[in-house]
Amino acid sequence: MTSKRIILPVVITFIIICILIVNYISSLQGRDNTKENERTSMKVGISIYNQYDTFISSLVDNLKEETKRMEQEKGITITLDIVNAGGSQVSQNYQVEEFINKGYDILCINLVDRTDASTAIDMAMSADIPVIFFNRELVEKDLERWDQLFYVGAVALESGIMQGQIVAEACEKNFNQIDKNGDGVLQYVILEGEAGHQDSSIRTEYVIKTITEAGISVEKLGDEIANWNRAQGETRMSQWLKTYDDEIEIIIANNDDMALGAIDAMKKENIAYKPVVVGIDGTEVGLEAVKNGDMIGTVLNDGMGQAEGIIELAYSVVFHKELPETIELSDDKYIRKPHIKVTLENIDKILEKK
Ligand code: GAL
After folding, report:
1. Which of 38, 278, 283, 344 is the most buried (most CB within 10 A)?
2. What domains lie within the chain, and their CATH numbers?
3. What does the pLDDT look like over 84-103, one tens digit per residue?
């Protein structure tokens, strides 16, 4: 009887405590859900490696356009804070720190040094702020450190292959015209983007591989880095013109700006013969050069598609929403946009879409 008198109040107290705990937990969850449902804005911190890079500056314009579209479509407010790291990883790390201190919801980083992402990742992870890296691909090991790290870019290999196909197709139609000295071998120079950049090394390897696999013999006269830059492309080309005079038959450039720099050098020297020039990116000036015949072609690097991928992914991560079906997130981490070959044959269609 005595033991019954003790057990009953203990059981009742236990039940009451359980009910209170369950209520408390569900009220917390409710509060969280309300917070997510009530979210109507996001703040995005964007750091780019160099604002004077033509392709990157057009990508930034595309990001602004995509942001406006997303704001209208979803009825939300997006604050973009875009800063330039000016080619310094140390400055970029400070920018990331500042974004974190300001309490931004997500960071988009165009790494200066793609092999040196660890400081930025450490800071983001400890502040629990997701990061979308873009255009300059970090090493896989770094990206795998956390499930809130993503990469948006292009399929580097494809751009090299398509560039090689443009040259091979031009040779199929006009080999004798391109092979000016008639030795059956195409003498070429190549302007490379940047040491250690995934797009540079892969494009350089695959463009030549594709041309030779098409049965065309080539001979390399020169290979120089010009940092994606038109003025540097011009300087390298002026040097080559002094050394090789009219021996160069093809100029291959890892991007349009360097190809245009080479064309600037040839125009300044007023050279009589015309080597074939091919670029990559399909920037506004690059497409113009295809249209007016200065370049035989370029490969469109889909900056608009990449910007759409970045903004859609940022929205989906911050608002906890599904990505649209048109955007594929492979391995839960990567969005890679395909390229398009551009030559005189389809330039008008491409320009219409721009
Ligand atoms: C490449 C692009 C280059 C340059 C570089 C910067 O994808 O083709 O023009 O912008 O990115 O990382």
Report:
1. 278
2. 42-154+303-337 (3.40.50.2300), 157-300 (3.40.50.2300)
3. 999 999 999 999 999 999 99
